[in-house]
Amino acid sequence: MTVFRQFLFLLATCCASLVSFAQGSKSFDQYDITLTPACFNTPYDDFATRKLGDKIYVLSAAKNACEDIDMDEFAKKPFSDLYEVNGCQLKDPTLMAEETKSLMLINTCYYDGPISTNAKGDLLFFTNNHGSDKNEKLTIYYSTKNANNEWSKPVAIPFNNDKYNVTHPFYDEKNKLLYFSSDMPGGSGGMDIYKCTFDKGKFGQKEVVRFVNTDKNDIFPIVYKDKLYFTSQGHKSTGGYDLFVMENLEVLNIGAPFNSVNDDLAIFFTDDKNGYITSNRGTAGATDDIYAFNLKEKFVDLPLDYVVTDAQTGEPVSDVAIRIVDDSTGIVLFAGNTNEIGLLSQMLDSIPLETKMRLKIFLDKEGYVSKEIAFDLVVKDSNRVLVSSLIDLTLEPLSLEQEITALLGLKSIYYDFDKADLRPDAIIELDKVVRFMNKHAKIEVELGSHTDCRGTAIYNQDLSNRRAVNAANYVKARISNPDRITFKGYGETQLKVDCPCEGRIRSKCSDEENQLNRRTEFIIKSLNITTGSAKVAPKGGTQTEGGNVNFVIKNEGAADFRLKDLEDPTDMAGVHFRVQVESSAAQIPNATAKFKREDVYEYEHERQFKYCLGTGLRTLDEAVKLQNELRSNGYPGAFVIAFNNKNRISLDQAKKLLSGQ
Fold first, then answer.
1. How far apart, in whole angstroms, are the C-alpha atoms of residue 57 and residue 50?
2. Which residue range(s) make up the domain with 102?
């Protein structure tokens, strides 16, 4: 009994199933895998499917080429021969028909083994038991086809030997390597997998394939997508023979449903998503059958290739910060920046198929209006991606007014449908306005309120007025000189998202778009802050629009607003002194009114709001003088404090810094 005879006895098939992938190799994690019995299976052993051109070939013991020698004495079954699949039937192969009749090299009286070919189909390797004795060893031959479509006389490969088996050829055309199995001496034990170079009829030295061989049988090697797949009895398996793959020099079991508690072997890919394996699980080990597998993607990797451009010039914008977020979960799928030519080239990993996802893209770049784009995405497969709307990746340059607004961090506030009540998220933004207006005693702000288009124009005008009044009253109650706040309702005349719905016209806006229309915007009428480069004044100049904020600007030289322009006029750099008069756990809403002075300086320290009077002073002597004046004028608890830039420090630290110590 030969070793290979045992292989024939142990081959098997898989029952149809749709199951998740088991532990081991990650090669198939992204697929649902379906295994279905091949319709051309016979009651006998069928195994080792191969493809040549558009034809499928299979080894089967359904019948035998010799009428008088038809049984394997060990397995008590006919010997296997090579057959061509014709629909759901097996027929004698037309492959090398005339040549092999005379040479008796394919479909001999005894065992015939798997074939392997190149992509063009003019090179063929095959296995057979070449003698008249069933105990003859298995050998590999190859043949080439000429321009007249004629096959050459088969040539034995140089590693054949009457003392051992050489079988299971597979030709890796890309790397010009011939793989095969053999029980020749010098291996790890049993059948081992070898390889050698083969190019233009010349063979290189054979060598054992590292890492894959065990002291048991390792057989049926194939290479697909640069990965070596093989069958082994010696590696950790779920039972008997299992299918394995070599990934990064590590042997991994390819898992269920390919492998079972029975014998599973001889995987072969016909394309990226389909192929065959052999297993005996469906017959309790009695016979081998062939199973077709299909791989259906559960996830795909979605390539992103976008260019962000300037909306006014059309030029690419580099270093734009981009975030892509799953709107339903808040999970950030991608975060990165465009390159020097405005290109974002990235892969979104593991996007689920057939699942509708609501995604948001956030674009941010200094000097440009930040942008948020929402859209629905359905990935049908790796070649079909459905997007609900055109993705506009252009950025509008910031105007001067918008740059100031961005620095202030002011955002519009929003309302529920047909409501004028202030929501908690609105209070957050209104408190920002309160803090800023208390810090800048002469700033003037208009609150402009809006509705969506649903309802009559008259009703919406009244609703926007109520929204404006509520927002304005909240701020007025918390600032000095409440007359600095004005308000105006605009009804539905200034829709952020234009989707009119007058009369019988129904709004085409989504709930999210209608929400953007129900808003109050902060219109800064005057900052009244003079800097070295510009002055923003309450009167004169030209009114311009900048997103949510309108400004009246009076230029005095080139406008050049930066963060320093928005700091308190009394902020000072370096070491300086102030005189503190009060500390409070809560912010004082009308500090200038309370202290009856305009030169109130507020800062936060150790979770307390601190209030100083007067300007910052460079020397301690000046600060002590101011302290004494304040103590004589109603502030007996006034005391001197020191700062380095905006950081509170001790008086001793200030003295050392000033003395250069």
1. 5
2. 3-295
